[in-house]
Every structure is written in C-alpha cells, then in structure tokens.
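Quick check before the chapter quiz. The format below is the same one you will see on the exam, so make sure you can read both the input and the output lines.
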Amino acid sequence: MTYEHLDTELVNELIGNGRASLRSLAEELDVSVTTVSNHLNDLEERGVITGYSPIVEYDQLGYDVTAILRLKVEGSALPDLTERLQGHRQMVSVYEVTGEFDIIGVGKFEDTDDMNATIKDLLADADVNESSTAVVLNTPAENEQFEIEIE
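Here is the expected output.
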C-alpha cells in the first residue's frame, strides 16, 4: 500500500470503530503497527483527532428532553456567554451563528422542568436579549460522522 491516503483511511477506520487496536488498524490498512502508531500520533499532534469518546445515548440515562436554544446576545457579551453556555454540563453543542440569533445551543434534559430551569437561568442573564426554544420531537440522526473522501 502507498501512504498517500493512509491518514484519511486511518481516520475513516476510527470513525467506524474508535476503539480499534493499533494491530487491527494495521491489519485493515495493510501496514505495520509502527506506521499506524506514527500516523495516529501525527494526526493527534495536528489536532485532526482530538480525543476518543463513547457515544452516549442520553435518553437511556433518563435525559428524555432535547432542546435547541436560540439566543440573541448583547454584542460584546457574545464570547463570555458562549463560554458560560459551553460550560453548562447539559449543553452538548454550542454554536456562534449568523442570522437572526447569535448563539444556538443543544441541551439534554431529564424533563421539561429541568429544561425550564436552565432557560430561566439564561433569561435572567442581562446579556441575553431574546431567546427561542424548540423541543426535539424525534431524533432520526445524532452524533453522526461521515467518512472522508479519498481524492
């Protein structure tokens, strides 16, 4: 095998199984364990791969409500509020966005009371000018990753 596309193929293998051993990756990619280890270390050092995490099914743990929070924020407070929202333990995604709202957050909550408490905390913040919340009714896809095309 040529190493031209090895990094891409390694990433794609890890997307399929993030717990794959170096040996199994080497066998699948038809290279040595040392080669896989070196390329994996390089991908980590470059920030392409930033960690290895389980995919948690929060609803199986009692977090039955997923909510999309949209916030309009006082301009200069955007970085601070984004950081605070990111630090909230039940927020699984936080985005600074263009458009009508400035921040979009995705949170997992035990129930609507839990969600309401979080929203009320946010609305009490003087930097939040407006909010809108959408409760997710059905989740056809979540935490999906896609394989990288080999050019």
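If your answer matched, good. The CA atoms of residues 9 and 29 lie 7 Å apart.
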